[in-house]
Amino acid sequence: QAMFGDHHADSEIRPGQKLQRPSMPRVFSTVNSTHTSRSFSCPCCYKVHLDNSTLRAHISQFHGEKMPYTCNLCGKGYLSTSGLSRHMQSHKGKTFMCPICDSKFTQKFTVKSHLRTVHGLDQCINCSSVLKLGIEFTQHMKDCDGNKFSVLPV
């Protein structure tokens, strides 16, 4: 029961109990809201919030003094100078472009993540070729310098 979390805690089945199948829209609605919601984790205490606004309110209320590096343009706080530096790129304009759809990003890493999640592609870390994920990409990486893979978090 702990494996499924608290939202399945009342799902007890007793011997002889007749089971009723819930309507499908309700099932999909519950699955979507429970299992596919994007979550936002606090960088100080790792408490998870369902949206960015509640995370930001939590950080300012509970960790205000723990965010020593603050953006002088918008007031966002960061735990490290590197976090603040990455953030400052967002104020400079979008400088990295997706080679497929021309979307623009402030960080090169974000382009790589976009390629993988939106287009199902990855970029060779050796020659910068953009290839479809799967056998084609695996073979290219073997041929292009000893099976080194670009690891991109999803």
From TrEMBL:
Q: Which UniProt keywords apply?
A: Metal-binding, Repeat, Zinc, Zinc-finger
Region Disordered, annotated ranges: 1-24
Query: For bias kind Basic and acidic residues, which ranges apply?
Result: 1-15
What SMART domains does the record tag this protein with? ZnF_C2H2 (SM00355)
Q: What one GO molecular function would you report for this record?
A: zinc ion binding
Q: Name all C2H2-type domain ranges.
A: 40-68, 69-96, 96-119
One Pfam family, short name: zf-C2H2
Transmembrane portions of the chain: none
> What is the name of the protein in this document?
C2H2-type domain-containing protein
Species the sequence originates in: Arion vulgaris
Gene that codes for this? ORF67337
